[in-house]
Structure formats: C-alpha cells, structure tokens
Amino acid sequence: MTLDPISLTPVPEDAEAAPVEFQSPEYLDPDEIRPPVSDLPHLSHAVLFFVLTLPMLFIGEALSVFLAKQSHFFGNKTYHELFYLMLSDARIAIPTQALTYLLTALAAIALFPVLWRMPFSQGIHWNLDAARTRFLWLLALGLGLGFGITLLGNYLPMPKDPPIMQDMMGSQLGAWMMLVFGITCAPLLEELAFRGFLLPGLIHAMRWLIQREILSSDALSWATIPLSVVLTTIPFALLHATQVSHAWAPILLIGLVSIALCVVRLRLQSLAASTVVHAAYNFTLFSGLLLQTEGFRHLERLNS
Length: 304
Prior knowledge:
Radius of gyration: 25 Å
Order of helices and strands: EEHHHHHHHHHHHHHHH
Largest sheet: 2 strands, antiparallel
Number of helices: 15
Helix content: 55-70%
Structural class: mainly alpha
Strand order of the largest sheet: 1-2
Shape: globular
C-alpha cells in the first residue's frame, strides 16, 4: 500500500499502476501570472506611459517654480515671473525638465512591474549586458553618427540661431546644464519612451492585428518592423522640432538618428545599448560648441 505524499491517505492499487501527473492550479501557473517578456510592452502600455508624463510634467514644473522661489536664486521674482522665465532661461528650464523626467521614470518603475509581474528592466528589455560587452563599439557608433549628421547638415538649409542655440547663449551655467542634461537624463528618458515603450508596442500591435487577420499578413508581415520604426521616428523628430525652429532639414536629420537608434535597439534587444549611442551622439553636438566657446566661456562666439 502506498500513501499519497500530499494527503497521507492510502492510494488505490489501480492508481499506483497509472500515476497521475501533478498539475498546478491555474492561479499558480506562471504563464497565467505574467505574460512572456517578448510580448512586452504592449501598445496600451506605451499609451499609459505617455499619459503618465502629463501629471508628472505638471508636478515637476510646479515643484521647480516653488523651489526656485524659495532659493531666491532668481531674486524676488514672483511665481508667475518664474514660470515664464522657465521658457527662456536654461538655468531653471533644464532642472525643471530633469525633475519631470525623473518623476516620470520613478512613476513608471513603480507602476509597470505591478502590471507585468516582473522587474521593470526585464519588461523594457534594458539588457545591460549587451551594452556593457559592446560599450566601445556603441560609443564609437554614437560619435560617428553625430559627426556624420553634423557633416550632412552642412549641405542642407539649416536654421540660423535656432531656439536651442539661443537658450545656450543665456549663461555659462545654463550651457553646462544643457550639456550634462543632454548626455544623461535626455537620452535615458527619450529612449525609454520611444524605443522602450512605443517601438515594441507598435510592433506587437501590428503583429496582433495580423494574427487575427484584421490586417493582411501578405501585405504587412514584412513591413511590420519598418513601419513601426517610421511611426516611432515621426513623434521623436517632432518632439525636437521647437528646438530647431520647425525647419525641415534638422527634423529630417533627427529622424535619421531615430532610425539608427531603433535599429540598435532591435538588433541587440537592448534599450541600454541604444541609450549609450544616443548619449554619445548628443555629446558630439556639444563638443563642437565646447571647442568654439572655450568651455562655454565665450558664448558670444555662437553668434558668429
């Protein structure tokens, strides 16, 4: 006679001959608890992330104006004056944007692991190992991309004195803030938003429509990734449009950069990898200005 290992009751003879394979209850099934990593993030997650940025923007701006007022760094300006100063002075605009980015990232890190039932870095395919093992190659790619885009810009009608250049000319401190922000917070959150959420969300959405025969598999199966890259690139380029006076030439160049970042993200399955390339690319945009102004000490040279 054999005892059941769970209930410690006798097992009938016929059951001994044909043991039943143990199956876990549905609520213990890992596949029921969390979706496959390859299916994340969904397009709904991307939409939720961008919606999440709206309250974080409001909170970040309000908190920044409050802190600026309490610090008296800008004199005795009113809250209303500080708010409008945020639009033109990098010394308050950049910390505000950095704070907004930080709040958005923290909110996403707190929310999405609950939805995904897995670590945030795993859900967005951060994959730090891929970036670490190829760091020098990614760094060189970003620098080369920056120099190549700069060279190509010499043959296109670029705007004179775009808003981003005017912002840098305001003060040496503001210029350094823009540099540090441009190679840290900016590439990190922009990659998170566009290559971490939007790009895979679009790819998964199109594949879902094709699997359910809502879209033709013959017509779109081969175009799923290219079309997703284009749809990711358009809002990414338009995000920077105000910095370059909405001129088509620099927007086109930013679009080419976005395509390259999408390729890196998809090829290596690593958001960390595309972030390294993005940061290195941004550094090249500032390196020439650093040399021209001798470390931002002669900002008036940017007018020449």
